[in-house]
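Minutes, project check-in
Item: structure for the 58-residue chain
Input as provided by the requester:
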Amino acid sequence: MTAQQPQPTVTPNLEEPKLGFNEYAERLNGRAAMIGFAIMVAIECITNQGVLAWLGLR
């Protein structure tokens, strides 16, 4: 007696959402935030001033 192989299910071809929260937008925003943070740290090291000094709050 041979066991029957299960039939694969058909996966619908869904279109990615163009607006709102989706994987691509989240990845892009995360990368931009990391680059911005790295640039901010580099500028702080170069100028020896913190963010509050840049904004004139200190």
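Outcome recorded: The mean pLDDT is 86.
No further action items on this chain.
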